[in-house]
Design goal:
With 749 residues, the chain is an alpha/beta fold. Bound molecules: adenosine-5'-diphosphate (ADP) and zinc ion.
Length: 749
């Protein structure tokens, strides 16, 4: 027998290896193996089996990893699709489908010694008093880890061994599963009676999952409908997900729930674990995300592979979880850009979910309060079915959103714009008086975002990147948020011919907001949450727990606090600078602003008291701001889609972004021009293709690499993908220049 193996070397090629007698029966499609390649041992995946090979003198597989094939044929097929569509070698795609700890078998199951009570012999042995005490503990527990027993009994291994000698207990190693949520208290919950909108949505999803499985295997049958659930924040989408999952479990199938990494809070996970912790549909709920230790990830993944965890909740890469058979995929907050992986394979987990659902006959539900233009457009084209939940599930109304015109505030003050407008200050004061909580949002960390000299115009910039340095006051350093470069803060303008001592900080970051709050409201308990305050593993949980327990009055934060959090006592949300996302050079700037404002506003008034939101803006009449103020997604969609159509941006075209990087700007530019000529030559006559560039990228220099871009737009991506793969294989690049191809990019930086 011969195994065809894809190696982790991105060679776009498969190699044949002999299966030695010792491994016969253990190697199948999807098995991970180690094989000799040149002078090295390399990891790979078996992608096919054959009776013989066209090559003579095959080398043999040296190791088989794991007892079960790790990449199921279905996931393997999905990896091939990713390779074709996202223009990357299949080896690269395969790397993403398994967590590292499983892929490299760096981790195994953790075994610990357990002590088991044996049935006592007819003639009970004589015990010392010490042994007697220990035996009582074991008898009560029946079985427990040795370490635990030593701790409980305040005893030594010696005493326990004596009990073993007397035939009362057995000491044996046992797999001890790591449970990342072992410390959480899970209280079982029951399904809630649904309101009319929820029932209607659930009924449609259930009807779809009830269709006979016609589509077992790629290519055949009628695909399952894929749904878009458009429900305002707190409309009860999660409850619908939970009940839909219960239904597919009844059918003996499993479910994958994707949640953006930052919304994957212990709170979210607990809701799913609690519902399925008991009762007839009890199952393990596995969790996959980047904050787990690699050992935890190993155990969680294998619980799924063994079929013990039928529900998986996780971030982006959980879309590859080996749930089989799969009945339902939920992509919550489907518009989130974090579903896109920003390194190869540059896949979008939402889009992979739709493809996987089609191939495996699973129903896909995309949920959002602010659907992406692409997904909503798909409902208009009849590609997705639209489910709407326009009201909050409880009696609560959506919060009142007030837009504050910061130009007026600035005029009133006759100075630089204030951080807090008068109305926002008043609102905060009120909340403090009433003992209610406030969240303040600014998507920029640090104290000041730039350091300038007013005399000569000098701006402190990063030596490696085309951005200015941010002043961090606690650290007393200037820092680059792209490459991490740090330097000390100059006391005068560093330009040799200037030396002006009056250099000025400008632009506000979260650190400054926190600082200003302390001055304005000295009694308020303020906590900041951004990547600077999250240094240790549990900081995230600690800050949120303190806030939930009312130990904090005001929580200031970046996008980390924008999503998924549910604090009933928050009645005020302030958005310090709403225009920030409008200024990014990206056709999605308006859409992002609308989404962010809506998400952040959704944090207010989730309890019994109505919420209020203040949006501070210098362009208060921008449509993204005005539609967000009125909670009017449709209004926003209608005007935005018109703009997209006129300019032929997605969803009316598919985009591929080519970026060339290198240390020598001339060479980067030259190579980019060469690629443009190649494209013009090879794709001549393709009428609906638009090629723009090359031009310097919006972030023209990063980590000392110059960056040039070409943007391609066409109606169909499949043909463009295959042409771009040809480009990658066919065009030789200078050694120090790299080309990345980003299909369906979410960011144009
Ligand atoms: P979403 O996922 O849309 O943000 P959630 O599912 O978190 O909304 O629901 C918001 C709140 O409403 C939660 O506290 C939830 O328990 C409650 N809720 C949801 N559905 C119902 C219902 N049918 N009856 C009563 N309360 C509900
Ligand atoms: Zn830098």
């Amino acid at each position: 027998m011969v195994a065809r193996v894809t190696l982790e070397l991105a060679l776009r090629k498969e190699f044949d290896y002999a299966i030695p007698a010792e491994f016969v029966g253990r190697v199948e499609v999807g098995t991970r193996v180690k094989v000799p390649f040149g002078h090295r041992q390399v990891l790979g995946v078996v992608t096919a089996l054959a009776d013989d090979s066209a090559h003579a003198n095959l080398k043999a597989i040296t190791r088989v990893i794991g007892t079960q094939s790790l990449v199921t044929p279905k996931v393997l097929a999905l990896a091939r699709w990713i390779s074709d569509y996202y223009c990357c070698p299949v080896e690269t795609a395969l790397k993403s489908v398994l967590p590292d700890s499983v892929r490299k078998e760096e981790e195994g199951w953790r075994e610990r010694l357990h002590v088991h009570a044996l049935p006592p012999p007819a003639e009970f042995p004589k015990l010392t008093q010490r042994q007697e005490t220990i035996w009582r503990i074991i008898e009560e527990w029946r079985e427990l880890p040795l370490q635990e027993l030593l701790r409980l009994g305040e005893t030594t291994g010696e005493t326990v061994r004596k009990l073993e000698d007397k035939g009362l207990v057995r000491i044996a190693p046992k797999v001890d599963e790591r449970d990342p949520y072992a410390k959480e208290q899970i209280v079982a919950t029951q399904p809630l009676p649904l309101n009319a909108r929820q029932s209607e949505a659930l009924a449609k999803i259930i009807a779809a999952t009830d269709r006979p499985a016609q589509n077992d295997g790629p290519g055949g049958g009628v695909p399952a409908p894929a749904f878009l659930l458009h429900g305002v924040t707190s409309s009860g989408k999660t409850e619908v997900y939970l009940q839909a999952i219960a239904h597919v479990l009844e059918q003996g199938r499993g479910a994958i729930v994707l949640v953006p990494e930052i919304a994957l809070t212990p709170q979210t996970v607990e809701r799913f674990k609690a519902r399925f912790s008991s009762g007839p549909q009890q199952t393990l709920v596995a969790v996959l995300h980047s904050h787990l230790s690699s050992g935890e990830r190993h155990d969680e993944w294998h619980k799924i592979r063994q079929g013990r965890a039928k529900i998986v909740i996780g971030a982006r890469s959980a879309i590859f979880a080996p749930v089989d058979p799969l009945g339902l995929i939920i992509v919550d907050e489907e518009h989130e850009h974090s579903y896109k992986q920003e390194e190869a394979p540059r896949y979008h987990a939402r889009d992979v979910a739709v493809v996987r659902g089609q191939r495996e006959g699973a129903v896909v539900v995309l949920g959002s309060a602010t659907p992406s233009l692409e997904s909503y457009h798909n409902t208009k084209r009849g590609k997705y079915m639209l489910l709407e939940m326009p009201d909050r599930a409880t009696e609560m109304k959506l919060p009142v959103v007030r837009v504050v015109d910061m130009r007026q505030e600035q005029l009133r003050r006759k100075g630089p714009p204030p951080i807090f407008s008068e109305p926002l200050k008043e609102a905060i004061t009120q909340r403090l008086e009433r003992g209610e909580q406030t969240m303040l949002f600014l998507n920029r960390r640090g104290y000041s975002t730039s350091l300038q000299c007013e005399k000569c115009g000098f701006v402190a910039g990063c030596p490696n990147c085309s951005v200015s340095l941010t002043f961090h006051r606690a650290a007393q350093r200037l820092m680059c948020h792209i490459c991490g470069h740090e330097e000390r803060v100059p006391t005068k303008c560093p330009q040799p011919q200037c030396g002006n001592p009056a250099i000025r900080f400008s632009g506000v970051g979260t650190e400054r907001v926190e600082d200003t709050l302390a001055k304005l409201f000295p009694k308020a308990r303020v906590q900041r949450m951004d990547s600077d305050t999250l240094k240790r593993k549990d900081d995230f949980r600690r800050i949120l727990t303190d806030f939930r327990m009312g130990k904090t009055d005001i929580l200031v934060g970046t996008q980390m606090i924008a999503k998924g959090l549910h604090f009933p006592n928050v009645t005020l949300v302030g958005i310090i600078y709403a225009d920030m996302a409008l200024h990014i050079p990206d056709f999605r700037a308006g859409e992002r602003t609308f989404q962010l404002l809506t998400q952040v506003s959704g944090r207010a008034g989730r309890g019994d008291i109505e919420g209020e939101v203040f949006v501070q803006s210098f362009t208060p009449f921008h449509p993204a701001i005005q539609y967000a103020r009125r909670h009017d997604f449709l209004g926003f969609y209608d005007q935005e889609i018109e703009f997209r159509e006129q300019l032929r941006y997605p969803p009316f075209a598919r985009v591929a972004l080519l970026t060339l990087k290198g240390r020598n700007e001339e060479k980067v530019k030259f190579t980019a021009d060469h690629i443009r000529r190649w494209l013009d030559g090879h794709l001549a006559g393709w009428t609906d293709l638009v090629i723009a560039g090359p031009a310097p990228a919006p972030l023209a220099r990063a980590e000392s690499f110059f960056r040039y871009q070409l943007m391609l737009r066409a109606r169909q991506m499949s043909r463009l993908s295959s042409e771009l793969t040809k480009l990658q294989i066919g065009v030789a690049l200078p050694e120090d220049i790299t080309l990345t191809v980003d299909v369906d990019p979410v960011s144009l930086a």
